[in-house]
Amino acid sequence: MFSQASVGQTEIEKSHSIGPELKQAIKDSRIAVVIFSKNYASSSWCLNELLEIVKCREECGQMVIPVFYRLDPSHVRNQTGEFEEVKIRWSEALTNVANILGYHSVIWGNEADMVEKIANDVIEKLLLTPAKDSEDFVGIEDHIAKLSMLLQLEAEEVMMVGLWGSSGIGKTTIARVLFNRLSRHFQGSIFIDMAFVSKRKGDIKINHLSAVEERLKNKKVLIFIDDVSDQVVLDALIGHMGLNTFTRKKSPPEGFDELVVEITRLVGSLPLGLNVLGSSLRGRDMEYWIDLLPRLQNGIDGKIEKTLRISYDGLSSEDKAIFRHVACLFNGAKVTNLKLLLADSGLNVNIGLKNLADRSLIHLRKGHVEMHRLLQEMGKKVVRLEKPENQEFLMDSQDICDVLSEGIGPQKVIGITLDIDEIDEFYVHKSAFTRMRNLRFLKLYSRLRLYREVKLQLHGNFNYLPPKLKLLHWDEFPMRYMPSKFRPENLVELIMEDSKLEKLWEGILTLPCLKEMDLSGSQNLIEMPDLSKATNLETLKLRNCYSLVKLPSSIPHPNKLTTINLKNCRNLETIPIGISLKSLEVLNLYGCSMLRTIPLFSVNISHLSIDETSIEEIPSNFRLENLSYLSMKNIKSEKLWERVQPLTLLTTMLSPSLNQFGCSRLRTFPDISTNIGRLYLSETGIEKVPRWIEKLSWLRVLYLNGCINLETLPTGINLQSLYVLDLSGCSRLRDFPDISTNIKVIWMKGCNKLEYVNLNFSKLTRLEEVDFSDCLNLDKEALFQQRTYLGCQLWFSGEEVPSYFNHRTTGTSSSSYLTVHLLPSSLSQSILRFRACLVLYDNYVANFRFKGRFWNSFDSFGQQAQDFWGETEYYSIKPFVKGSHLLILDCDIHLSIGSDILAEMNYTHVDLQLDFPSEYELKEWGIRLCSLAENQLGNPNTLPHVFETDEGNMLNHGGEGEECGGNDEVTERSSKRMRVNH
Predict the structure, then answer these.
(1) I need a surface site. Which of 778, 853, 863, 877 has the fewest CB within 10 A?
(2) How far is CA 65 from its chain centroid?
(3) Measured in whole angstroms, how far is the alpha carbon of residue 67 from the centre of its chain?
(4) Average pLDDT, whole number, for the chain?
């Protein structure tokens, strides 16, 4: 019987000897099922078939499934019984096949079941064994041979090979043929068609890659992914592979860990760079590695550069120019800004960026252009290799200081970029820019914002900036006014943060190209110029301009300006009433403490911040129908809140936010839109939450922390969208009812009078964290004695493990462990589940897990039995805790390897060990076992109950009664853990 090719009786007569047709059919088959019966040896036809099958198995790796039908396999293996007369030339073939694990009909009670099992076995193997599909592809063998060499099948390391090229050149065909050739040599294999997956199932998200890693780490697997178009897919596959690529080992050499990480970072995890540097560094001592670091920080390896240069040299002259602009000035810039900045350069930016992206020389992500560090260094070096008089960009700090101090700038330079944090002293000649009439981009910036004093001196007669400037970014500009001869008609961006400017210029200047003006931190700025002719201005940033008293009455064209940021302009007294900004979307007046009124702005405002202002009223016809964010922290006016109510017009946004933090005068719950998504009412005077809050069906985040007058919450409501609730510091709150079945985080720290909490953990399937720290009157014993499974972290104040946890230890050492005695019946299922308590001190963020070594004292022969190691998934401690706290959570360890369940081994003991970071203080920990009745791996029928005698013996209590949830409920819970996502 052959699994793929079939030969009918009409094609070959049974009386004839085995012919070429049957031989070919055997060769073309992927699986051969050999059925031995009592009369098998008497058929020369069958024996000749067997010879050919064994030959194909030895030469081609063909799979063989033997079936012994009413026959002892030893008769075939040893040629006894009916097979004693078999000829010598068939003896080896018979022995060979009989030694293969097959099917013996004698041990099957029902032959139909055996036939079905064989059929399923064949189907399963066929699914794992690809077809032969390369016969008709001419010239494909050369490609297969090259790729096989690159994969280095004999190597122990993980290998990754990419096929890259334009559509239609045969990448998929080559990949499929290679997959079919190689898959039989691996323990597992899969071919993923990303286009098909995306079309059928949409995006697939893996939240816990470590689980996959755990299953595959000891297996040799082959993974092909076709139609990869997103770097995220490759990043998820590579993970820590960058370090392995660099060192050619699974871990760095001893003592070289930090050096490997630093060099990998400098190379940007680019495989080419890792391979080149790895080959030169392997075998070198640590001193050599350390000496190399400055070179990598300042430049690029020659071999890497030579390879990258090939891609650059293949570009057109226009694309090369755009590549150099990005490498030298605009890596990380917004695409829209880049197009404006290069608008009159003669370059086709749209096509150029696409060409560079197609060659993977840049990436366009979220509206920004990004270039790999090594490619950027290569592009800068291309510019530096030009003769000084022909250089387009100046980037070296010393060269720039020399050029500007001596006034000898080359005429062809179009861009200068200097991080002023790199220099201590800077002198600019009065004629520094006179010869650079083609200069378009001047960027003297502070990258780290160190705010240290740089000794920058401008010649007293400095009065000239090139007229073609499109980008003027000069942080800490030392002059009180802009040069009088400066004509900013071509400016697209004017950025002069932390300058000494008092005023930009006198009069009205035409600024048709200006898109962004940022003078933030210019503490001496008294007034702004008339901007009525800045007709394309979109963003105006003046935050921390402490001396600014007023804005000009003539603000730019009302249909373009979208953002005004006046944060902390603490002396700003008025905003001209005549301003009408129809396009304004964002207005930030945070900290404008002298501001008492605001004019009627755009109905399109979506973000309004008037925190810590003296605004007393809002225009009565100020419509907020598009408002998505309103912040009114610490407002001084008692009447302002009444003026902005009701907020029932917020109907066009599904998740608007309201921040009313710190308004102690607010005593009643605000009348707000039912579409509200985030509501911050912290430290207000609210005494009661009204029942109509249940109508806020879109409310996801509710902050009521510090509301010291709040005493009760409504019962019988279910805010289905709510996932974060903060009631910390509500010192008069006495009870807490169920408020949302979808809640994820509840913070109730410092609720001193809280006595009762109604938390039905069996229904709160998404709950991840509850903080009851400093809840002095709360009966915490009743909470952590919940008989339903806890899928969340519970936090309490405390100094020691409560007596409820009857297995306890102390110490922070990772070697500290507990030995727990198990009843013979306690591990009849495949999970060990226990409730754990950790006593922690001053923790911020930590990750930990439990390991369990299961073993028997003695087996039936009086010898110590083989043990088994299992472990929990990683758990993550996220909240900040101060002082000594208890962390309570439920954990489980699966007693299985792959699909092989080991629970039936009837272990009598388990040594539990806690892996916990040494840098955090773990004072002690303990556990209490949980029952596992009918809660089997992959088939959970009930919620487990916590029930253990004080002597430590586990009792199997059935999953009956109100405390047990349904199948769906438990399945959902078991899939959610507090884990570290890798």
Answers:
(1) 863
(2) 45
(3) 50
(4) 73
| CA 616 and chain centroid, separation | 45
Per annotation, catalytic residue among 11, 13, 49, 476: 49
- DSSP 3-state of 75: helix
CA-wise closest residue to 443 among 488, 494, 367, 398: 494
Q: Which residue has the higher pLDDT, 391 or 17?
A: 391
In angstroms, the Cα distances linking 768 to 670, 746, 851 are: 29, 9, 22
Give every CB contact of residue 406 below 8 A, 6+ residues apart in sequence.
429
Residue with the two structure tokens 């109510």: 645
Distance CA 509, CA 488 (A): 8
Any catalytic annotation for residue 49?
Answer: yes
Long-range contacts of 269-275 (CB under 8 A, 24+ apart): 269/238, 269/242, 270/304, 270/372, 270/374, 271/160, 271/242, 271/245, 272/304, 272/307, 272/308, 272/374, 273/301, 273/304, 273/374, 274/242, 274/245, 274/246, 275/245, 275/246
CA dist 397 and 618 (Å) reads 51
- pLDDT score recorded for residue 196: 53
pLDDT of residue 11: 41
The tokens for 376 are 């950027």
Number of neighbouring beta carbons within 10 Å of residue 841: 15
Q: Which of 491, 461, 456, 460 is nearest to 475 (CA)?
A: 456
Amino acid in position 52: E
| Residue bearing the bigger pLDDT, 201 or 110 | 110
Q: Which amino acid is at 86?
A: V
Q: How confident is the model at residue 67 (pLDDT cuts 50, 70, 90)?
A: confident
Quickly list H helices, 282-422.
Answer: 286-298, 302-313, 317-325, 335-341, 349-358, 373-384, 397-406
pTM of the model: 0.59
In DSSP terms, 631 is beta-bridged to 609, 659
pLDDT of residue 393: 93
Tell me the C-alpha distance between 853 and 932, whole Å. 18
Phi, psi (degrees; rounded to nearest 5) at 306: -60, -40
* Overall residue count recorded for the chain in this entry: 982
3-class DSSP state for residue 609?
strand
